[in-house]
Amino acid sequence: MTIPRGNDRIMLGRKSVYANECHEGQFIGSDWDMDFDLSGKVPENRRDFNKQFNPVFAESYQVSYIILNN
Asked: pLDDT at residue 59 above 50?
């Protein structure tokens, strides 16, 4: 599997209505079927992050995939 490289666009509300607020507050909000907040839990090293959270994301993805494909 090849992952395409490039830019992804995140719309911050319809017609980017929340763009200024998010830019000024230095945050974005999104939903990947996660019911927890990562604030203060993200280590500096991405490998540490992956080690800690990949199992959580994988479990969520499997549950979402099963629900969507049944």
From this structure: yes
Burial state string for 11-41 with b = 16 or more CB within 10 A and e = fewer than 16: ebeeeeeeeeeeeeeeeeeeeeeeeeeeeee
Say if residue 45's pLDDT is above 70: yes
Alpha-carbon distance values, 24 to 8, 18, 49, 69 (Å)? 20, 10, 25, 39
Contact 36, 53 (CB under 8 A): no
What is the torsional sign of CA 45, 51, 54, 59? negative
The answer to whether position 60 is within a domain reads yes
| Residues belonging to the chain | 70
Determine the structural domain holding residue 62 and report its residue range.
Answer: 34-70
